[in-house]
Design a protein that fits this description.
Length: 241
């Protein structure tokens, strides 16, 4: 069983499905190197630390997360949390798959008939990784397409995605230097997912997303507590109905 197949099985068993943007399959960031001219999959430094949630990967942001958590007052109707956003959401799926229908149309609908501002679109893998490891508001993980579908990285539809403040037009996703093409990125990214390093650490990420560190004391200690309404059972749907 490959790591890709294993993660897809876990997603399916947990109720995640390609048919629901709010419960879309979630995959981990596995690499931390988006700047080198060549990718060394034998070097542990090339990989993301799978024992930590995205929001706790850098010391600076972790310090901010802890400070905010400790300053929050635990209220009966608003439990404390480390992250106000989530690692998986409809918005995150549409962000990643912007160039691929039907997600393109959904993205336009979400923004009242137009694309979001060019500076907020998925334009570069290096920039996306930087945002996900520095911004308190960005803790997105990845989607399965990052490991098998190069099409979502290309603007084959010729969509007018706008011009950024740096005067660069948004088109195809800007790839790391080590990727010669979208197809090459997917191939190397898949090799990273199936590497010995990821295979020996993947269970740590699974604990955070699907396992014992999702909630409770273990989640607090792992700095893995999200806004309370993102958890199953947080809202009494019968009383709302």
């Amino acid at each position: 069983l490959s790591n890709f197949e294993y993660l897809m099985e876990l997603n399916t068993l947990s109720g995640r499905t390609f048919n629901d943007l709010n419960q879309y399959p979630v995959f981990p960031w596995v690499l931390a190197d988006y700047t080198s001219p060549s990718l060394n999959l034998a070097d542990p430094a090339s990989y993301r630390d799978l024992s930590k949630p995205v929001g706790a990967l850098t010391d600076d942001r972790l310090a901010q997360v802890i400070e905010r958590y400790e300053q929050m007052e635990a209220e009966a109707d608003m439990p404390r949390f480390h992250y106000g956003s989530h690692y998986s959401s409809a918005g995150a799926v549409l962000f990643w798959l912007l160039r691929l229908e039907p997600y393109t149309s959904y993205s336009i609908e979400l923004q009242s008939g137009r694309f979001d501002h060019a500076d907020r679109l998925f334009a570069s893998l290096e920039e996306a990784w930087h945002s996900c490891t520095t911004s308190l508001a960005d803790v997105k993980e990845l989607v399965p397409e990052f490991f098998y579908l190069p099409d979502f990285l290309r603007n084959d539809g010729g969509f007018e995605l706008g011009v950024r403040q740096d005067h660069k037009r948004v088109g195809d996703v800007v790839l790391p230097m080590w990727a010669r093409s979208a197809d090459d990125f997917i191939a190397q990214h898949r090799r990273a997912l199936e590497s010995e390093h990821v295979s020996s650490h993947l269970h740590l990420w699974v604990d955070l997303i699907f396992g014992a560190k999702q909630q409770g004391q273990a989640a607090q200690e792992a700095h893995n507590v999200f806004f309370y309404l993102t958890y199953e059972g947080a809202v009494d749907l019968e009383s709302v109905a």
